[in-house]
Amino acid sequence: MENPGKKIKLxxxxxxxxxxxxxxxxxxxxxxxxxxxxxxxxxxxINETDEGIKLKPVYLRDDIREIYENNxxxxxxxxxxxxxxxxxxxxxxxxxxxxxxxxxxxxxxxLIEDLSYGQxxxxxxxxxxxxxxxxxxxxxxxxxxxxxLSITTxxxxxxxxxxxxxxxxxxxxxxxxxxxxLFMMFNEYCKEKNIDISTLSGALxxxxxxxxxxxxxxxxxxxxxxxxxxxxLKWGEQNIPYFKxxxxxxLPYHNSGAxxxxxxxxxxxxxxxxxxxxxxxxxxxNSITGSMVFRFGIGPDFFMEVAKLRTARVLWSKIVEAYGGxxxxxKMFIHGETSTYNQTKxxxxxxxxxxxxxxxxxxxxxxxxxxxxxxDQVFGSSETFSRRNARNxxxxxxxxxxLDKIIDPAAGSYYVEKLTDEVKRKSWEFFLEIEExxxxxxxxxxxxxxxxxxxxxKKHQEKLSKGKRVLIGTNKFSNINEKKVNYSxxxxxxxxxxxxxxxxxxKKDPERPxxxxxxxxxxxxxxxDSVEIFEFGSSLFSSGATLQEVREAFLKTGxxxxxxxxxxxxxxxxxxxxxxxxxxWSYNSSEGEELTITIAVAGPPGxxxxxxxxxxxxxxxxxxRGNIIELKGNSEExxxxxxxxxxKMIALCAPDGFYPELIPELVPLLxxxxxxxxxxxxxxxxxxxxxxxxxxxxxxxYLGADIAHTITQILNESGVxxx
Length: 723
Known about the structure:
Blueprint: H1 16-19, H2 25-34, H3 41-45, E1 47-48, E2 54-55, H4 61-64, E3 94-95, H5 104-115, E4 122-125, H6 128-131, H7 154-160, E5 171-174, H8 179-192, E6 201-206, H9 208-215, H10 222-239, E7 242-249, H11 251-254, H12 260-280, H13 285-289, E8 292-298, H14 302-322, E9 334-338, H15 350-364, E10 369-371, H16 384-399, H17 414-436, H18 439-446, H19 448-465, H20 492-506, H21 515-519, H22 522-525, H23 530-542, H24 547-554, H25 575-591, E11 596-601, H26 605-620, E12 625-630, H27 635-643, E13 649-653, H28 659-671, E14 678-682, H29 689-695, E15 699-701, H30 707-718
Parallel strand pairs: 3-10, 4-5, 5-6, 6-7, 7-8, 8-9, 9-10, 11-12, 11-13, 13-14, 14-15
Antiparallel strand pairs: 1-2
């Protein structure tokens, strides 16, 4: 017997490469095909993305051998590996969160709290009224202090930024059409507070094309807004050089269902549009592109999102190079924001998990600034807990996952590099198509962009409804015991009343009568250069002007024709399923009882369990609980079993071979009832569909069936009313 304590010595050094032969891709594929049981390799293991890219299960060095001739280092070349040479090592990414506040005092309270717990910038997203440059008294319900901050006067800005050292944090505005006026107000605020504005950093995100796509209209003619952008750019370059003025956002398209390829192409076309418009107004290419921020939605497809961000930087650098821009100003500064397109009202805590993976892909893709949306944003509210949770997602990725300690972690992956190359080619093709159709503005006006994105969104919806795309808690793994969330906040009219009261008190300032004299100076001021006009507009706020008054001092808003188009259809992917869930909840509330379905089971338990689980989960998607009854005895006894509880709906659940006997014997008895239940069969009937329908089966449920459509039809047939 060998000594168990004796050490074993190897005769030679381990040589894995020599000891084991390296299989070829053909040998691997042959083994893989052998496990597919006759299913073709292409069908089983090749997947096509929404972008039309066919994904292989395995990528090798040969897949990327000809993609890049030279090694790219971070911060150089085409910037595929990011715009900073040291990645996040020195300054990290910008953690840029919304407060969810509608009123200035509330905004200040939330912001101080958020900045003290890791947030690194100030994000000022305005409400609809402020974005259109109208005062609360001129607004309509739903426009004031909802989904954004109401800012009307310089006192509002004083309240917003009270006790906050702006020099320590970038200030980011989401100001829609009112960007110039808010920039003027910000300048005057800094003057009154003796803040050296030249030391501040941030972004104005002046992006009228985004506003047009999102709302279908603008508060002023597009030409006027381009002139405003030019004025802000010229003033900003001289006075606040670290502040980027122009935004180019894909959020309205992303949240309408656009693919990664469509997002990139639209971003590029928007950027080109702004270059052309600003060059017409005498601004240099480097001044334009050096003052731009691109904003991308970040979706759930991890590797596609990484490839999207890498691709966008490459293509933008090539475009700016073609315009004559220098290397520094070919860099694409990216502000990423986690998607609202795939957020859900039901099982909303899953939204936290979604935003976590989206944030991870954004950082792996090399964004510069990131907004992580709260899990409850879909309800129109953001409580302290949800804001903290959203912020901490980024803090964990930094402090615990150490994503700030590595530069471009995706580089070198055969899959990511090949995917980036394919996304690049398709994005460039679609960009050229947009440009050939007249560019982003013409594309929106003609409906071309809207149609293209809508077609993609339709494919998403079809996949979701057939279970080929999954939203956890919505079309799969639904929580049947979930309680409905009801958001209760101030009504729209109450929000307007509160703000109007504040502004009315502000207008009682004894110095305001002098304002008319200042407005009378506008016609002469407009003959001066942009910088002087900007400074004069800023000074009006110190004289007591409101946002709307400043706009109207320069533009009689009712006198000029404004753009109007069919806006993007911004709609969450889960919307159709949520309508069904709302319908069932409404029924439960009005009837005082839970809507259920009887699942009538026949057959050996071992064989039928997967079908029972499928059947139950199919209806739980709608919030309909399944009551399982095991059928016993002859057809008459089964009939008694099924009708005792007077069910509205019955789903027969048996192995396929049982149905030819079970249906002819049982279904005619159920059809004869006074309160005839809706009869459903679990399984694909194949060529027996017509026969079973003639016997009384109304619907069939199976893998690949249209879940939303089928359940809607079943509810219609069962007399469950909408609303």
